[in-house]
């Protein structure tokens, strides 16, 4: 859910313009071989030979991008930062693959900064400082503490500031060269509103996707890699991390987000998979034309209909934190005592006394919707009565918690979005699409030398 969203599956593979430093790949048709139509559009010979042993998938972790150097240290620091901030651990056997993905990201980032400077767009030191400080606050640290944290995980503030520079420069370039030329007509907006009215009551699915291209020869390898990703995601790794780093669809730029779609717009294989998924579930790898997809169902709804999960809740949360070094057995014992105490609560008026008795912290929230909560809690809260408590939930590291329902304002029938909201969404989609095309053209013109 991120910045912008693409609303259609896009199968544009990500390719880097590169100058090979060793080996030569040459193709030659066998004399007299029949000419077969080449579906790639690249005019490849029907029967080719490869001369040289260079593996195009093997890249050394340094590059010169139009005279700008990306070092192995740059790659390591960005990889360490990305893994640490996403709270991820990867097996040693997969580190080389992740390094290649990070290197590609750094090359794109360098190209974006260079293109912005060529258009007289620069990001000041003060602007990068402001963004860095804001990110530090998001992690509940001071800037000095956050710099020390980055160093402790094998990264640096320089790596994050470089990423900040790339994002700010690229966004400003888009505002200068793309956004002013994106137009959405009144008739287009009206057509969308008319379609929404006509589809009232039909189901929509908010889906994120990772697309991995494959050939028959590589299908086993691709499926194995996809299953490793799914295993890590089910273990808590963010879906968005894998979409951003491994997906080969243009939606990788928006963390694989397809936005709200009707199943009819998806390939049949994905329709079948999505229709069987519950909110918060992951499915795949699903074989489709040209490769495999991994799906994540963020949410689903009925168009212009009231949804129970849009009900606004008034909640009181009780939290008991565990001391460092608490074992699983000790955590289970304390959780059982916590559960007994919270299940005895009769109404929110009794929360404070129970909290005092068991040494729990209490936090109130009067404006959260059921939809904003994790899927496991959504189902529980939709069935709860006022004054009841959820079962305990948590972990040995973060302690145990429970939510007490103090009030509920049921959702009203959803209305049509405003014309301005529809227009803004259309403009956002078109800017994202043109941004992908612009980056593709920049890559084609780039000179990238791997060392």
From TrEMBL:
Transmembrane recorded as keyword: no
SUPFAM superfamilies (UniProt xref): FKBP-like, Triger factor/SurA peptide-binding domain-like
Domain called PpiC: residue spans: 202-299
Superkingdom field: Bacteria
InterPro entries in alphabetical order: OMP_Chaperone_SurA (IPR050280), PPIase_dom_sf (IPR046357), PPIase_PpiC (IPR000297), SurA_N (IPR015391), Trigger_fact/SurA_dom_sf (IPR027304)
Keywords: Chaperone, Isomerase, Periplasm, Rotamase, Signal
UniProt KW Secreted keyword: no
Signal peptide annotation: 1-27
GO MF assignments: isomerase activity
PANTHER family according to UniProt: CHAPERONE SURA
Name under which the protein is recorded: Parvulin-like PPIase
Record organism: Sphingomonas donggukensis
């Amino acid at each position: 859910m991120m910045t912008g969203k693409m609303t259609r599956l896009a199968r544009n593979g990500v390719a880097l313009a590169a100058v090979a430093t060793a080996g030569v790949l040459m193709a030659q048709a066998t004399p007299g071989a029949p000419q077969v139509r080449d579906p790639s559009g690249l005019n490849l010979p029907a029967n080719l030979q490869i001369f040289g042993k260079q593996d195009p998938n093997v890249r050394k972790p340094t590059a010169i991008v139009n005279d700008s150097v990306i070092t192995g240290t740059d790659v390591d620091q960005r990889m360490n930062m990305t893994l640490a901030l996403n709270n991820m651990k990867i097996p040693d056997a997969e580190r080389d693959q992740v390094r290649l993905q990070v290197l590609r990201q750094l090359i794109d980032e360098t190209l974006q900064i260079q293109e912005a400077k060529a258009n007289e767009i620069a990001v000041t030191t003060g602007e990068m400082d402001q963004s860095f400080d804001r990110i530090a606050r998001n992690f509940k640290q001071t800037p000095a503490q956050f710099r020390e944290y980055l160093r402790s995980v094998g990264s640096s503030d320089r790596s994050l500031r470089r990423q900040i520079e790339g994002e700010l420069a690229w966004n400003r370039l888009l505002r200068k060269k793309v956004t002013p030329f994106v137009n959405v007509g009144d008739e287009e907006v009206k057509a969308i509103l008319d379609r929404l009215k006509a589809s009232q009551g039909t189901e929509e699915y908010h889906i994120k996707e990772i697309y991995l291209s494959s050939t028959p020869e590589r299908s086993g390898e691709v499926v194995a890699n996809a299953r490793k990703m799914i295993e890590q995601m089910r273990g808590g790794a963010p879906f968005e991390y894998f979409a951003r780093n491994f997906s080969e669809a243009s939606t990788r730029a928006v963390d694989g987000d397809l936005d709200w779609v009707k199943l009819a717009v998806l390939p049949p294989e994905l329709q079948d998979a999505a229709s069987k998924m519950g909110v918060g579930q992951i499915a795949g790898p699903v074989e489709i034309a040209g490769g495999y997809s991994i799906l994540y169902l963020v949410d689903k709804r009925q168009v212009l209909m009231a949804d129970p999960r849009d009900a606004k809740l008034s909640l009181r949360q009780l939290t008991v934190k565990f001391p460092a070094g608490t074992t699983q057995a000790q955590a289970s014992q304390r959780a059982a005592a916590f559960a007994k105490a919270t299940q005895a609560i009769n109404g929110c008026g009794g929360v404070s006394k129970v909290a005092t008795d068991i040494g729990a912290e209490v936090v109130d929230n009067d404006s959260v919707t059921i939809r904003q909560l994790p899927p496991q809690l959504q189902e529980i809260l939709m069935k709860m009565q006022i004054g009841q408590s959820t079962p305990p939930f948590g972990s040995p590291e973060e302690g145990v918690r429970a939510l007490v329902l103090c009030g509920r304002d049921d959702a009203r029938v959803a209305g049509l979005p405003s014309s301005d909201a529809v227009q803004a969404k259309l403009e956002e989609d078109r800017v994202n699409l043109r941004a992908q095309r612009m980056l593709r053209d920049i890559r084609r013109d780039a000179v990238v030398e791997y060392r």
